[in-house]
Amino acid sequence: MFINSATIFNLVDTKTGFICSFLMKTRKTVDVIGCLESVFKDCSYQFIVVDNAPELVSNEMFEYLYSHNCILIISPRYHSQSNGKEERVNQTLRKLIEKFLDQNYSMCVSIKKATTAMTIDKIRQYYCEEEEETSFILNVYKKMPVLHYIYFKRKGKLDSKFTLGLCIAEVGN
């Protein structure tokens, strides 16, 4: 993923939804392997699905993953449905990073804040063993005791930036 000429390497665990993001200096296989080493220290994976980027399908990458008992699965060209979860994460992460960059955060801090914002619920569910509830709850209008700022995106295709707003009430339970 590219944002403002910076290369960001994302890993998404499809089972838990956990996201790891790395700001890379170059798009070389050695740099990608360095990112994977920090991930493989914590946990191992049985397989990794990648697109056809040259740094991800090289012999060096294949040998590295083979040495860690990990199978490299290459998705078909121009078929984003093969790794759709990663594509959705990239879109959401890009918007969040741009939001933090608009607030004058550095690229590293923006990536860290955006990744944390997207994975905090998944971490809590994993460690606290909480299940998602999908029961029906009536919408209730509650006035907020303390006003707070929110970011929202206006409806429409032409507006791609988030706007600062003031939350005065909350709908739902």
Please, could you describe this protein's structure?
It is a single chain. The chain has 173 residues and is of the alpha+beta class. It folds into two domains: 2-128, Ribonuclease H-like superfamily/Ribonuclease H (Nucleotidyltransferase, domain 5, 2-Layer Sandwich), CATH 3.30.420.10; 141-171, no CATH class. It is 37% helix and 25% strand. It contains four helices and seven strands, in the order βββαβαβααββ. The strands form three sheets. It has a three-stranded antiparallel beta sheet, with helices on both faces. It has a two-stranded parallel sheet with strand order 4-5. A two-stranded antiparallel sheet has the order 6-7. Helix 2 (59-67) links the parallel strand 4 (47-50) and strand 5 (71-74). Mean pLDDT is 78; it is low at 133-139.
Largest sheet: 3 strands, antiparallel
Pattern of helices and strands: EEEHEHEHHEE
Mean pLDDT: 78
What is the C-alpha radius of gyration, as a whole number of Å? 19 Å
The helix fraction, in percent, is 25-40%
Number of strands: 7
Shape: elongated
- Strand-residue fraction? 25-35%
Report the structural category.
Answer: alpha+beta
Number of domains: 2
Unreliable spans: 133-139
Q: Within the largest sheet, what's the order of strands?
A: 1-2-3
Write down the CATH topology of the largest domain: Nucleotidyltransferase, domain 5
**Overall CATH architecture of the largest domain:** 2-Layer Sandwich
Task: Report the CATH superfamily of the largest domain.
Answer: Ribonuclease H-like superfamily/Ribonuclease H
Cα-to-Cα separation, first versus last residue = 36 Å
Organism: Strongyloides venezuelensis (Threadworm)
GO molecular function: nucleic acid binding
GO biological process, one term: DNA integration
Protein name: Integrase catalytic domain-containing protein
